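MOLECULE: protein
FOLLOWS: sequence and fold
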Amino acid sequence: MKPPAHKIYLASKSPRRRELLRQIGVEFELLLLRDDPARGPEVSEAVIAGETPENYVARVTLEKANAAKRAMRMRRLPTRLILTADTTVTIDGRILGKPADQAEAREMIRTLSGRTHQVLTSVVLIQDEEIRQITQQSDVTFAALTEDEIAAYCSLKEPYDKAGGYGIQGMAAMFIQQISGSYSGIMGLPIHETSQLLRQAGIPLL
């Protein structure tokens, strides 16, 4: 077990990010932000008009980090390094969020079919006033899909909590012909880049 000073907060609900941090031996506690339907989330994920996908994902991740830092102080938690991340899928400059329903999921998967799109994951480490951030991009090529394949996939639960309507670690893996970049980044946390940030922040790995 690492000393308490080396334990971090993970401000993310993603089980995939938890798995990836455990994979490289990072000890963490969850620091979850409010998501109250009556009051709304602490950080809005709405896209600002004219915002590029790169600026969007970097901004949202930084806002989540700052919100997590405020939550840590308001809850009077021990001061620790905070890690946040956000992933977005983009094609032709369009940002594909999480589909709201089956019709939107089908439209997204149809758009990705037979084409190459980009997956952007931004990672922020924040401690006191020091901020470290990196955004990693991967290119993902889908095979051409039939309407029956699209309909069958979108009838599953899988597409509806993931940007772009798919997860590379799930059933959609059968659609992917090629990737260029970081497999873990497509999952939601680029391990190579994240480990570099953690080392820079004084978190020992290996």
Q: What stands out?
A: Strands lie at 8-10, 28-30, 35-36, 40-41, 82-91, 94-96, 116-127, 130-142, 176-180. The mean pLDDT is 92. Residues 4-200 form a domain with the Maf protein fold (CATH 3.90.950.10).
